[in-house]
From TrEMBL:
This is Tetratricopeptide repeat protein. Signal peptide: none annotated. The keyword Cytoplasm does not apply. TPR repeats lie at residues 1-34, 35-68. It comes from the Archaea. It holds the Pfam family TPR_11. It comes from Candidatus Ethanoperedens thermophilum. SUPFAM superfamilies: TPR-like. Keywords: TPR repeat.
């Protein structure tokens, strides 16, 4: 699964989104609980404006790893972009707390800015 995940990352960075999606999906097929693969697939789908599918992948990453601060943050951004401010606020608040708990103050400050922009 990890080899497919890493190849997916490489292809994603090369903007070969169709092939990257295939590799992330293969990593997930091999290991359905691969939170990072769900998260990166969510990022790819979000970039392609496939918001419903991106949301599903972010939520799956969070189901597998509830402390996945980046997934909460990116889900918050997606929810904000799709005009769901209350849900976005909830995800941003969770992300901020997790980043603070992990000692990642800069990331927490960025999330705080996102929170303020939807208040």
């Amino acid at each position: 699964a990890e080899a497919h995940y890493n190849l997916g990352n490489l292809l994603y960075n090369l903007k070969r989104f169709d092939k990257a999606e295939e590799e992330y999906r293969e990593a997930i097929r091999i290991n359905p609980d691969y939170a990072e693969a769900h998260y990166n697939l969510g990022n790819l789908l979000d970039d392609l404006k496939r918001f419903d599918k991106a949301e599903k992948e972010y939520r799956e990453a969070i189901r597998i790893n509830p402390d996945y601060a980046e997934a909460h943050n990116n889900l918050g951004v997606l929810l904000s972009e799709t005009k769901r401010p209350e849900e976005a606020r909830t995800e941003f608040e969770i992300a901020k707390k997790l980043f603070e708990k992990q000692g990642r103050e800069e990331d927490a400050k960025k999330v705080d800015k996102s929170l303020k922009s939807i208040r």
